[in-house]
Each structure stands twice: as C-alpha cells, then as structure tokens.
C-alpha cells in the first residue's frame, strides 16, 4: 500500500495545476475588485469586461455585466446605486481561505482555527457558494451571525416557513427578517439547477459573482469546444464570438409569478419577492420589461 | 437430511415474520428456506437506493407488494448535497411497473420523483393504495392529479415536507366522485389553495378518513365544516390558524372540535392567533401528539394549551416555550416520550427567548418516559448534560444542537466532552446521537467505549485528529450511519477501518481533510463500497492528490458504481485512476 504523503502541496505544485485563472469567467463591476483581483484577463461571462472603459455614469451599476456588453443600456434600469445598499466584497475570494468559514463563523472566537492551512494551500480559488461572508455594513445589513451552509441544521421547509412567519409578524426590532432564503437557480442549457441562499449575499454584485462561479462549469465546456485550452489567449474576434454566444440575462420569478429582470428593484425588495432565478439566453429575455429596453434604446 | 415439511407450511409460518431482520435471518438457514422466503416476502425496505439495483431486487423477490426506498444522504436536508446529485425514482418505477403489477405501497424518502413517475405509478398498479413522499422533490401538482384521477383504491397520500412545484390546487378535484377509500391525506407542504368544495365533498364521501393534514391556505373559519364531516378523524392538521377574532368562528370551532371524539394528534397552526387556541381545549384530554413547531405563540399561551393535555406523548414546539414552559410541560405531561424544540430565530446574533439548557434538564427530570429529544439552544454545560444523563438513562435518541458551532461549556469554558460522555455512558440503549458544541477527541473515545447500540451518529465542527474518528469506527459496534461535516479528520482512521465501512449503510464526510489520493486508495481497496467524491470545483485530477475533497460519500453496494452520476460526482475504483487521467 502506497504511503500517502503527508506534506501538502507546495506553491510550486500549485502553479503546475491547470491554471484556469486566465480563462476564468467572471462577472465584474467595471473598475471593481472582481476585475482586478486576478492576474490575466477577466472575461466576463455575462458581458464585456468594462474595467477599462469610461464610466458614462454607469460605473456604479453592479448589474451592468449581467447583460451583454452590447446591450449595456439595460443596466440603466438602476439609477444611483447608492440607495441599493451596494456591498462590494473586495477580494472576497482571496479571503475565503483565511476566513475559517468552514470551521467557525465570525464571532466564534478563535476556537475554530483548524486545518485552514490545509485548505488554503490546496484551494487557490474556492468556488463554493458564499459561505459566512456576511460583511457588516453598519446601516444596511442586520446584525445577524455569519452563516455557514447548512448550519444550524434546519430543513428548508421549516426555514422558509420561519421566514414567512417573521416577515408577517412585522418585526419590532426592524431586522430585515429571516436569516436565510433558498431559491432555485436554473440556467438555460444546464443539465441541473442549483439552490442559493439569497441571504448570504448583500448586493447584486455579490449574487452575480456567485452565480457565475456556480455555472461557469457549463460554459467552460462551451469554450473548450471552441478550441481554447489552458493559457491560450483570446483574440478579439474570439472574444466577440464568445460574447455573442454567451448573452445571458439573469431573471427572477416574483411572488406574483411574473418573470422580471434582476436589478430593477432595490436589493432588499428583490430578496423579499424573489421566488426563483433563471439565467436565460438574452434572446429570450427581450419580452421582459419592455419599458427598460425602451429606456436603453433612448439612452444609446 | 431430508425432511418433508411442506413448503406451504413454512410459508405460512414465515408470513408471521414482519421484521426484515427476522426474514433475513430465516433466509440464511438453508437454500430451501431462502427460496421459500424470497417467494413470500411482501415488504422490502431499501435504506439506500444505490446499494442495490431494481433488477437485483426484483430477481430475488418476485412477489413484493410494498416498497420503502431512501435516496439522498441525510445532510441533503441542510443543503449539503448539491442539486442534481441523484436518487431518481423513475428507474425503480419503470422496473417495478413491469414486474410488480400488484404493488400496493410506495414509501419514499429524499428521492427525486417526477410527474412522469407519478403518472406511471398511477397507471401501472391496479391495486395501488399507499403513497408516502417524505422530503421528496421534483414533481408538480400535475403529478398529484394523475394519482388522484387513476388510483381507484388509494388509501394514503402523504406528502410530508416534500418540495412540490405548486401549479394549482386543481389536482384535488381529480379524485372521482365515486372515490371513497381515502384513509389518510397529508397535503401540508403545498402552497396553493385547493377547491374547498371539492375538499368538502371528498371528506364527506370517505368514511374511513382518519388523517387529514391541511395546508396553510385553508383558513380557520373553514375548519368546522370539514371537522363536522369527519368526526372519526384521529389526526388533524389545521391550516393557517388565524382570523380576525369573531365569536361565531370561535364557537363554531369549539362545537366542531367537540364532535371529534377520536382526535389524538394535532398539527398545522401556521400564523396562529392565540385567542383561537382554547377552541381545542375540549379535545386536549385525548391528545397524544401535538405539533406546534410552526406556531409563533408565546410561552403563557403554550403553557395553557399544554396544561390541558395530560396524555401528551409527543410535542414539537418552537423555543418560544422557554424554560418556564418546559417546566410546566414536565409537571403536566408525565407520559411525554418525544420532545423537539426548534429555534424561532436561529440566525439572530442574540437570543430572542429565554430558553436554555435548564429547560431540557427540567424535562428530563420530570418526564420519566422521555426517550427521544431534539433540542436547539444557545448554551450548554457539562453539568447540565451530566444531570440529563443521570435523570434519563432511557434515551434512545438524543440530538442536541447548540447553535453556535464549537461553543464550549458556558460555565467553565471547557469542551463538552464529559457531558456527552455521560450521555453515552448512562443511556445504554442510545441508538441515535447528534453532537454539537466544543468537542475534542475525548468525546469520541467515550462514544467508542460506551455507545454500543448506537446506530446513527452526526458530528459537526468537532474533534482534533484522526484518533477521534478511529474511536468511533473501531468502537461503535452497531453503527450504521455516520455523517460528519467540518471536522479535522483525514484518511488515517478511514483507511485503518476500511472494513468497518462494509458493515455500515453509509458514511458522509464533508469539509474534512480526506485527500483525493486516500479516496482513490479506499476505492481500490474496497470493491464492494462505492467511494464517491463530490466536488464542485471540477475534476479532482486537476488538483494535487493531497488536496482534500469537498465531500465524500461512501456506501456499501451490490450494484456497482452508479451509472447516473452528475459531473460533480466521481466514483473511486480500480478503473478510476485510468479513466480520469
């Protein structure tokens, strides 16, 4: 029986690992840490990386890159993002390794500092859904504990019922209510759907980044089939090609059963009314919120 | 040795054996007993749908009438198993449709059930009687409509805690007018309103209806009409138990409840308005089971209700009951056997209610028959656990969830090892245990030493090293299911106790430190186990072998590797190393 080496991977081994970072697909706020955080080019899954472009007054729109770069005007649906309680998780992925999220949420003191070293060295990027990343921003987020996935162990049915109970009871404390809210996320063309807890995100940017990580495995497959491997750089025509193919739009079903574009309403209102999410092909989304489309056309 | 004991006689005798264990024992006596037994086995329990294939089951047991199948691992309840993992019912139904035309019962837990499966069930089994879907998902109310429309002899339709895509309430209206055989209906997990008149007519024409659990959409003022039509009800679940206080609604309720002389179990109570609770007082003396776990009612109102239920055996309640309410419970309900206390605000930073370890201590002292506990709280001490263990050595299920992971004894700041140690040492019949709080390898030493009847163990954020896991795997002789999350266990204990895994149903380890290389080795070493790595970061081959896997699910099987795996699950076996590279 072969001995399993106890020594964990050194950084040199790490570099030899297939480096997906350069072809990594991510949603990015123009000029945000998302675009900046990794070496190489961040190609936005859902739209052009607008890092280097001038702002045109759209700079603070977190949803910009959910829509394809060509239809940048969709993002105009959000005016003045400040009131939406934007929460930028600067370098959040890099911190994930340090965050001890698997062993103790914030507030648990230092008792949980076990084995993070093992995880850090093996996981340059951990595309797990956001765990325990609730960052308190004074005015906007409630003072609830950082959440670990699946803890405390309460079934979804009970959690969702609690959620409805709390919001119906008009909390005196003024908390935004329940601690978690699982919704299903489907993506056109993906073989199965995912579930996300909306309460672990505090902004549209947060959510879109997590979704991108979750579903990138499906689109990476597409890229592979177009002949991109490893560190091969994309030429401009490739890029436009990909963007055309990957025009995805994030939509949600609200309490009334209507499908809406994500980003039209304040974040809190969105989490209160969102029942499920769907990442649909841009071509199918044209029927939604025609008012917004008109607005965009007007702007362009 | 030839003896001419007629087969028919043996078959007749075997028919009295209802327990699977007895039947399994009988089938091992000799070849002819094996043959006779397999032809007359009518009920099958499959604890893990991937441990065996439909074909193998059907080949061995050709005359089955009732199946019970469990799918996803328990931690799927807490969203630790990614969507698309598996546990599909369809292959089972399609095989059974051909081979078990006389199938009467299907009971499922944590399986993915589609409308297609439901339709196939409804059309394939002429004598179909019982459908129980516990924590299942994947189907819509259209599937329920097929069942309602086609299962002429249906007795039970129980959807407990399933996730149903609720397209409309119209499915209920598909029960034909001449359908009268319903005995049990549990639709409490559904959201949509069903046609109330259809429901009334259904209840009226089914004289054997014993269990009716409504969904939230049925308002309280409509309850009397249903209760009056079904005075023989034994189990009843209300809908939303709230309305503007109106005296006639209240008096109707009182009257309707008093007509139900056989009611033993009550549940529902969403959005409960406390003023309506007294409407039930005149049935409370017979009540043995009360599920108030959705009732956001404060302690005094709860106590008033509970004080009317001296025969209570099972109580599920929110922590609004507080220590004071539990004290009252312990004095009024001396027959109590099972208690579950759920958190009303699990994510709040501060406690919102005055529920502490004291409540559990009091109940353990005052209720001599208490044997099963699920308790969520925010603080615990070794002293309390020791007291509980001494008070109540007859526990068979003890599940404690201290909300903050790795919370120490709040009095001494020590780990809770000795407290849980006392539990396993005193409660010699303990079959199920869930741990929480700050725990070192010591607690596992206690468990391995004392918990000889333990069948299921759940561990989270506990332990220091592989020694902890080794204690459990080497010491717990009756262990069947082990589920572990966020513990610093690596591969050493696992590999050293690999043979143990063949005596268990399954092992789950997530966010631990088991390396990919170790998983491969385990898979190679143990061909009768499926060693499955679940990793959403992409193929484990893209990372070093020493890198820990995200999640590991190991189970014994005679069916070989799964053929329906999603792309984030890999089976470690002899071929794996070759196929993946």
Automatic annotation (TrEMBL), chain A:
Keywords: Auxin signaling pathway, Nucleus, Repressor, Transcription, Transcription regulation. Its main location: nucleus. InterPro entries: AUX/IAA_dom (IPR033389), AUX_IAA (IPR003311), PB1-like (IPR053793). Gene3D superfamilies: Phosphatidylinositol 3-kinase Catalytic Subunit, Chain A, domain 1 (3.10.20.90). GO terms for biological process: auxin-activated signaling pathway. It is found in: Nucleus. Residues 121-145 are annotated as: Disordered. Coiled coil: none annotated. Residues 180-282 form the PB1 domain. It comes from the Eukaryota. GO terms for cellular component: nucleus. Aux/IAA proteins are short-lived transcriptional factors that function as repressors of early auxin response genes at low auxin concentrations. Homodimers and heterodimers. Belongs to the Aux/IAA family. This is Auxin-responsive protein.
Automatic annotation (TrEMBL), chain B:
It is found in: Nucleus. Residues 5-46 form the F-box domain. One of its GO terms (biological process) is pollen maturation. Its main location: nucleus. One of its GO terms (cellular component) is nucleus. GO terms for molecular function: auxin binding. It comes from the Eukaryota. This is Protein TRANSPORT INHIBITOR RESPONSE 1. It comes from Forsythia ovata.
């Amino acid at each position: 029986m072969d001995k399993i080496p106890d020594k964990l991977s050194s950084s040199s081994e790490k570099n030899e690992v297939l480096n997906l970072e350069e072809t990594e697909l991510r949603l990015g706020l123009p000029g945000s840490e998302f675009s900046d955080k990794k070496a190489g080019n961040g190609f936005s899954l859902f739209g052009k990386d607008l890092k280097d472009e001038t702002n045109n007054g759209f700079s603070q729109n977190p949803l910009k890159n959910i829509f394809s770069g060509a239809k940048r005007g969709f993002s105009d649906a959000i005016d003045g993002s400040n009131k939406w309680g934007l929460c930028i998780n600067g370098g959040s992925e890099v911190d994930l390794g340090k965050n001890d999220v698997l062993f103790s949420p914030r507030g648990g003191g230092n008792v949980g500092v076990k084995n993070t070293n093992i995880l850090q060295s093996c996981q340059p990027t951990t595309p797990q859904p956001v765990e325990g990343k609730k960052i308190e921003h004074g005015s906007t987020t409630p003072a609830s504990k950082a959440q670990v996935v699946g803890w405390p162990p309460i079934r979804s049915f009970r959690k969702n019922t609690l959620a409805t109970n709390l919001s119906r009871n008009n909390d005196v404390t003024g908390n935004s209510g329940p601690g978690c809210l699982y919704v299903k996320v489907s993506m056109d063309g993906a073989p199965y759907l995912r579930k996300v807890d909306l309460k672990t995100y505090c902004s549209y940017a947060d959510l879109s980044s997590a979704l991108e990580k979750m579903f990138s495995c499906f689109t990476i497959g597409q890229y592979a089939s177009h002949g991109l491997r490893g560190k091969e750089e994309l030429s401009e025509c490739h890029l436009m090609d990909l963007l055309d193919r990957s025009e995805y739009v994030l939509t949600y079903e609200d309490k009334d059963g209507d499908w809406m574009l994500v980003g039209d309403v304040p974040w809190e209102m969105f989490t209160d009314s969102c029942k499920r999410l769907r990442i649909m092909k841009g071509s199918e989304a044209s029927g939604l919120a025609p008012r917004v489309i008109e607005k965009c056309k007007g702007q362009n | 040795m030839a003896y001419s004991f007629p087969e028919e006689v043996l078959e007749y005798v075997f028919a009295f054996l209802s327990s699977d264990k007895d039947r399994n024992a009988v089938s091992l006596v000799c070849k002819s007993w094996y043959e006779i037994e397999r032809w007359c086995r009518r009920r099958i329990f499959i604890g893990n749908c991937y441990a065996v294939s439909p074909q193998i089951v059907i080949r061995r047991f050709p005359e089955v009438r009732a199946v019970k199948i469990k799918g996803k691992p328990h931690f799927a309840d807490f969203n630790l198993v990614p969507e698309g993992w598996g546990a599909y019912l369809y292959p089972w139904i399609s095989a059974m449709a051909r081979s078990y035309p006389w199938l009467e019962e299907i009971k499922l837990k944590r399986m993915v059930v589609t409308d297609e499966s439901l339709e196939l069930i409804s059309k394939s089994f002429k004598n179909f009687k019982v459908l129980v879907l516990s924590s299942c998902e994947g189907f819509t109310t259209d599937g329920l409509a097929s069942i309602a429309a086609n299962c002429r002899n249906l007795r039970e339709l129980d959807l407990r805690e399933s996730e149903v895509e609720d397209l409309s309430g119209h499915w209920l209206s598909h029960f034909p007018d001449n359908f009268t055989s319903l005995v049990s209906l549990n639709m409490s997990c559904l959201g949509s309103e069903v046609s109330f008149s259809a429901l009334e007519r259904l209840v009226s024409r089914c004289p054997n209806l014993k269990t009716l659990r409504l969904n939230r959409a049925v308002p309280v003022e409509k309850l009397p009409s249903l209760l009056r039509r079904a005075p023989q009800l034994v189990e009843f679940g209300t809908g939303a138990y709230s309305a503007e206080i109106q005296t006639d609604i209240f008096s109707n309720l009182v009257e309707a409840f008093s007509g139900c002389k056989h009611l033993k179990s009550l549940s529902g109570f969403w959005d409960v308005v406390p003023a309506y609770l007294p409407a039930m007082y005149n049935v409370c003396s017979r009540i043995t089971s009360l599920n108030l776990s959705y009732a956001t009612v404060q302690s005094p109102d709860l106590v008033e209700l509970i004080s009317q239920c001296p025969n209570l055996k099972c109580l599920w309640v929110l922590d609004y009951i507080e220590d004071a309410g539990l004290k009252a419970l312990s004095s009024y309900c001396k027959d109590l056997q099972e208690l579950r206390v759920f958190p009303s605000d699990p994510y709040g930073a501060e406690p919102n209610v005055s529920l502490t370890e004291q409540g559990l201590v009091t109940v353990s002292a005052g209720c001599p028959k208490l044997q099963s506990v699920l308790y969520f709280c925010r603080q615990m001490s070794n002293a309390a656990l020791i007291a509980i263990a001494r008070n109540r050595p007859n526990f068979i299920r003890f599940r404690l969830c201290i909300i903050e992971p790795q919370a120490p004894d709040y009095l001494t700041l020590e780990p809770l090892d000795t407290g849980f140690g006392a539990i396993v040492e005193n409660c010699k019949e303990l079959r199920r245990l869930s741990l929480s709080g700050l725990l070192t390898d010591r607690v596992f030493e206690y468990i391995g030493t004392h918990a000889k009847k333990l069948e299921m163990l759940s561990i989270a954020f506990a332990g220091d090293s592989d020694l902890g896991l080794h204690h459990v795997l080497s010491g717990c002789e009756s262990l069947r299911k082990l589920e572990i999350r966020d513990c610093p266990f690596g591969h050493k204990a696992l590999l050293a106790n690999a043979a143990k895994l063949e005596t268990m149903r399954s092992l789950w380890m997530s966010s631990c430190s088991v390396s990919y290389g170790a998983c491969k080795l385990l898979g190679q070493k143990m061909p009768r186990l499926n060693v499955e790595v679940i990793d959403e970061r992409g193929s484990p081959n893209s990372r070093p072998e020493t890198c820990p896997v995200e999640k590991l699910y190991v189970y014994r099987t005679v069916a070989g590797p799964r053929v329906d795996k999603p792309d984030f699950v890999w089976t470690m076996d002899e071929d794996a190393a070759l196929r993946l590279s």
